[in-house]
Design brief:
Elements: H1 2-17, E1 24-25, E2 35-50, E3 53-73, E4 76-92, H2 96-104, E5 110-116, E6 119-124, H3 126-134, H4 138-147, H5 150-161, E7 168-169, E8 174-182, E9 188-201, E10 204-216, E11 228-247, E12 252-270, E13 273-290
Antiparallel strand pairs: 1-7, 2-3, 2-13, 3-4, 4-5, 5-6, 8-9, 9-10, 10-11, 11-12, 12-13
Length: 296
């Protein structure tokens, strides 16, 4: 009996002396001169019902971008992003063909920005980017801004570097972040992400999150170059959730995934006529952060 008690006490003491391997500092680390690559695959299946007719569109966009750390000055990080390759595959009855042409022009686009605590500021290169997409065509420029607004570009960068508490954390810790997700010409969603540090495996810290989302109609006179006006909308997201795997030793994301389903109705005005739409969209996004370009 005494031997078992001593053995138990020894195990407790050993346990107290061992480091808490699951505890980790969940924060990006940057070093001037570093370069890494991000592969993002966005898969969207959508259906719009108008006047009893279904318009289906399936789109899969794969973008590989490089990120070069230009300077590190305290908490301010200067970064250059270049879209190395863009691959678009679409099918269906929607704007797939025209969207493919616009999206494929993303290849070679370069942006400069500053990061501070995972938030982007001082984005440069967007105007030149839109000029390249428009190629002298005013309507194409409007279409490009609709598909790839400046807010959409910033949100993509925020998603990559955000979502972390930027401090030492242990499994079971939770935190929340508010954001706005652009939804193209249809408006946006105001969202609150609730994160949980679940566990740690050989690849890094496993973080899961769920999003509470509320729809915000678009501002301004209209979408699609002013041809279409959103009169009212009632869109809801369902089962919006994601997972992040973060390597605390390297201070870098390993991979991430996100999915959500959008359902609802919308009334639009076209040339003075109002039309009721039923909208459904299933979206999944997967992300990998790599030391080398996976295409090479």
């Amino acid at each position: 009996m005494l031997r078992r008690a001593c053995g138990a006490a020894l195990l407790v003491l050993v346990g107290l002396a061992m480091p808490a391997y699951s505890q980790a500092t969940l924060e990006w680390k940057f070093k001037e001169g570093d370069k890494f690559y991000v592969e993002e695959i966005n898969d969207v299946k959508q259906n719009i019902t108008i006047i009893g007719k279904d318009i289906k569109q399936n789109t899969k966009i794969t973008i590989i971008s490089s990120y070069a750390i230009k300077s590190v000055k305290g908490s301010e990080i200067s970064v250059e992003q270049k879209m190395e390759t863009v691959d678009v595959k679409s099918s269906g009855d929607g704007l797939g063909g025209q969207m493919d042409k616009v999206m494929e022009k993303l290849q070679g686009a370069t942006f400069q920005f500053t990061l501070k605590n995972g938030k982007i500021s001082n984005l440069k290169g967007y105007d030149d980017f839109i000029k390249k997409l428009a190629d002298g065509d005013e309507m194409a420029g409007k279409f490009a801004k609709m598909l790839m607004s400046e807010e959409t570009v910033k949100k993509g960068i925020d998603d990559l570097f955000g979502g972390l508490p930027n401090k030492s954390s242990s499994p079971g810790d939770t935190w929340s972040q508010d954001a706005t997700i652009p939804f193209g010409p249809l408006g946006s969603f105001k969202t609150t992400k609730d994160f949980t540090y679940k566990d740690k495996d050989k690849d890094g810290a496993i973080i899961t999150y769920k999003s509470k989302m509320s729809y915000i109609p678009p501002k301004g006179d209209g979408a699609f170059g002013g041809i279409l006006k959103i009169v009212k909308g009632n869109l809801k997201s369902e089962n919006a959730k994601g997972t992040l795997v973060f390597d605390p030793e390297k201070g870098r994301l390993v991979r991430g995934s996100f999915s959500m389903v959008t359902r609802g109705t919308m009334t639009v005005e076209v040339m003075g006529n109002q039309l009721d739409l039923e909208i459904s969209a299933d979206q999944t996004t997967t992300t990998r952060v790599l030391s080398k370009n996976p295409k090479e």
